[in-house]
Give the backbone structure.
Amino acid sequence: MADPRGFLNTPRELPKRRPVDVRIQDWKEVYEPQDLTHLQKQAGRCMDCGIPFCHQGCPLGNLIPEWNDLIWRGDMNEAIDRLHATNNFPEFTGRLCPAPCETACVVGINADAVTIKQVELRTIEEAFASGKVHPLPPDRLTGKTIAVIGSGPAGLAAAQQLTRAGHTVAVYERAEKIGGLMRYGIPEFKLEKSILDRRIAQMEAEGTRFRAGVDVGNEITGHQLRSRYDAIVLAVGATQWRDLPIPGRDLRGIHQAMEYLPWGNKQALGDSAEEGINVAGKDVVILGGGDTGADCLGTAIRQGAASVTQLEIMPRPTLERPSSQPWPMYPMLFRVSSAHEELDNRIFSVSTQRFIGDEQGNVASLELIETQFVDGKFVPVPGTERLIPAQAVFLAMGFTGPEKSALLTQLEIELDERGNIKRDGDYQTSSETIFVCGDAGRGQSLIVWAIAEGRSAASAVDRFLTGHTQLQAPIAPTVRPLMV
């Protein structure tokens, strides 16, 4: 194991965030570098448990005690090998995953959990910095061709695994650049896009082919895909956003979060000369208290919003683990993201009644009302109505499944009762040569689940095409709650 007394003698320590008044002036990542010796001490807190419940918490089955011990001992070469053995993209999960592994950490039963996520992130960053991350092209080609539709984390994981197995893989993306939600939905201050680009460059060197700016279903039909490829992997995500059909919804200035966030990323990178959605000088209201709402918050702050208010229909979570969510479950706690550290104006237990416009048809304010959760539903509290100013409103209320696109119709794909793409235990859809992974089949979930599903689907596709596989399959395609 690592330091035998590390969990007793070393307190949990995360890298410091850059000062708020400094970081809101730019779009760079918020964390300062952490000294490697401090990181090794944090890795030394791992107990190397007889039953490592962190494995249960991690959908990828990351070998957490192993690489914690290796980092503590300073064996960076073996540490990155063990990390990559289960995770194609630890630089993504190390930044974006909410770390269910940490809430399942045995140390966390009566103390602060090991900083697993930070050790993971620093391990891969040290590997990239020292040139230890290399392309891994296959030794031989199988002659089989595969189309992956969608270039988010699930699609990229499936594509990399299948390419390394020797198949010829083409990844199709309708946006102008590869990366899906990671490029267009995750703000630059959480994931600088150069981090994404370096991994895509590795995949290109391995042989994966990328086809960005192609609207599959229109520019290339489902019939054409079937005729060109031996198998198709649908990794199109759950991009059908949840709307709010209340009075005033048609006023100008009300946008979905995923209509807004791509403009923030383009502004951060100077990618577009077009006039996008900019909230400088405006009162902004965000509907939804999750990560997407926090992303809108951080973006609005950097654009120079006059004020930002975030509304959440759920009650304010507690600071301590609820008794209904005992260890090692992922608990719903009150969390302060980097964006909330910059400006935290959250209002809990409220519902929006209507949007109110000005004479020009622009949103000017909204009416909210307090709510109570009674008999399984939210009930308005009479007499608690009030108005708050809003010249820009962003809906960050989650997603209901994949878009019902022309491609799904052309491929004659069946949906399940939740509106997701129906699949069996081998990730196969109702059509034998078509597979699905990630949010499109699972429903809206976490990046770590997307990567795990991409790896598992790749294993199923490889077995389907060749009769056997050596690719790891970390999970079965069961639908599970969002945060477990």
About this structure: The CA atoms of residues 45 and 440 lie 38 Å apart. The mean pLDDT is 94.
